[in-house]
Amino acid sequence: MREVEPHDQALAPWPMLGRLLASRRFAPLFWCQFFSVFNDNFVRNMLAMLILFRLGETEAGPLITLAVGIFMLPSLLLSGAGGEMADAQDKARLAQRLKLAEIFVQAAAATGLWFSSLPLLYAALFGLGVIGSLFGPMKYGILPDLIGKHELVAGNALVEAATFIAIFLGLIAGGLSAGGRTPGGTVLQLMVIALACYGSSLFIPATRPAAPHLRLNPNIFASTASLLREFSHDGKLWSRSLAVSWFWMTGAIALSLVPVVIRNKTGGGIVVETAISALFALGIGIGSISAAIIARGRIFLQPVPYAAIAMAGFLIDVGAATWSLPMAEAEVDLPTFINTAAGLRIAVDVVGLACAGGLFVVPLFAAIQADSANEKRARIIGAVNILNAAFIVGGVLVTAALQSRSVGLSEPALLAGLGILNLGAAAYVLRCR
After folding, report:
1. Listed residue (311, 304, 317) closest to 423, CA to CA
2. 10 Å Cβ neighbour count for 146?
3. Tens digit of pLDDT per residue, the chain (433 long)?
4. Nearest Cα to 195, choosing from 106, 108, 135, 113?
5. What is the homologous superfamily of the domain 13-207+232-431 according to CATH?
6. Contact (Cβ atoms closer than 8 angstroms) between residue 196 and residue 102
7. Per DSSP, which regions of 88-183 are E strands?
8. Residue 289 to residue 269: CA distance in whole angstroms
9. Which of 82, 281, 30 is nearest to 169 (CA)?
10. What does DSSP assign to residue 207?
11. Nearest by Cα to 246 from 160, 334, 341, 361
12. Which residues have C-beta within 8 Å of that of residue 428, sequence separation ≥ 6?
């Protein structure tokens, strides 16, 4: 994977980040992304905590893993259509329509929480996945229309930081809601954030359609197949996209396994689970901003293989730290968890894994955007999202099967195995340089 530099002079990162956050051309997209991801993770973590602690499900591990697959499945089917929609029309207008629809999906999630209904919460999660699959190509496709090429790494870093800070807060809010907050207060919060998301979308600058004569293919399967077939012919974009998809699969599997490990092996309760998930989100944000600081205005791929090696090391260590621990007999609070050797080691590994992940994915995605033709950029992003979804859905389904009683692999073994596989990913990105 060769690095690409848009110009010879590296730029100071901090002023660039500040200018983007204060600019009318970028800030509305930033906040729209922030509120949207907050909504997604509020519902996802609320569902996970309900399964783990309030509903007493005996098959909690596979059910939580299944929730990840349900959320990602629409991306596998609809990202191609989302790319076509974004290329064929004003991307800002598309964002506004999607965020209006999200208000009604959040109402369904609020109803599911009120009645502690798993089917309703799963349905809302699927609806959020549908909106996310259509929003993703627009979100990343519009970015090069709003900012310069030399700002792409910084812009992507801020979008990823917004994503994972919102995950951080959404995880906390979801955990608190499942842990006993009054349903009325949670319903109000869900609806206020959904309205804020729609409101911020109204300020995204309008853009000209990249391919105004593009006709949408109503057959989503044919559209997806055609898009992937065309996309696979570009070796450079294809290899980078496979690497990005590997990252998202790794993160999804890790986030489905670590909560079960913490509950079963350390006795960590809702507060501990929420804190560790929040540390993961915070680490991704730190890694993403670090990627922008290192790049200094360039499309800079040098750190990518080394970040993959670091991801492998932290995953293996999480597995090693919990492999021989007995099943926990009592619930522990956050101070007790952090004061144990295993708890502190898990926390450090989670932060390290997340920081390495941010350093891994941000430069790769910026390079994909920079090398994509304007008239089909959103469709290319859609193809990347299809690959992401395929990797995530495939990965979590395999993980759920390996967790099931018929196979019975433990979560620490699965985490360590995922780390070993990441060594192969590091070798792949090194070979593709």
Report:
1. 311
2. 20
3. 444 444 444 455 667 788 888 898 999 999 998 998 888 878 877 777 777 665 555 566 667 767 777 887 888 888 888 999 999 999 999 999 999 999 999 888 888 877 877 888 888 889 988 998 899 889 888 988 898 888 888 888 888 888 878 877 876 777 666 655 566 777 788 888 899 999 999 999 998 888 888 888 888 888 788 888 888 888 888 999 999 999 989 988 998 888 888 988 888 887 888 788 778 888 988 898 898 888 887 888 888 999 999 999 999 999 998 888 888 888 888 999 999 988 999 999 999 999 999 999 999 988 898 888 888 888 888 888 888 888 988 888 898 889 877 887 888 999 999 999 999 988 888 776 5
4. 106
5. MFS general substrate transporter like domains (1.20.1250.20)
6. no
7. none
8. 31
9. 281
10. -
11. 361
12. 239, 242, 243, 246
In the block, which residue shows the tokens 């959320």?
A: 71
159 near 36, Cβ under 8 Å? no
Non-local CB neighbours of 341 within 8 Å, separated by 6+ positions:
none
Q: Which amino acid is at 206?
A: A
Q: Whose structure tokens read 């979590």?
A: 396
Determine the 3-state secondary structure of 268 from DSSP: strand
Instruction: Give the other-Cβ count within 10 Å of 55's Cβ.
Output: 14
Domain boundaries in the chain?
Answer: 13-207+232-431
Distance set, CA 13 to CA 140, 154, 265, 289, 359 (Å): 20, 7, 42, 9, 15
- Say which amino acid occupies 207: T
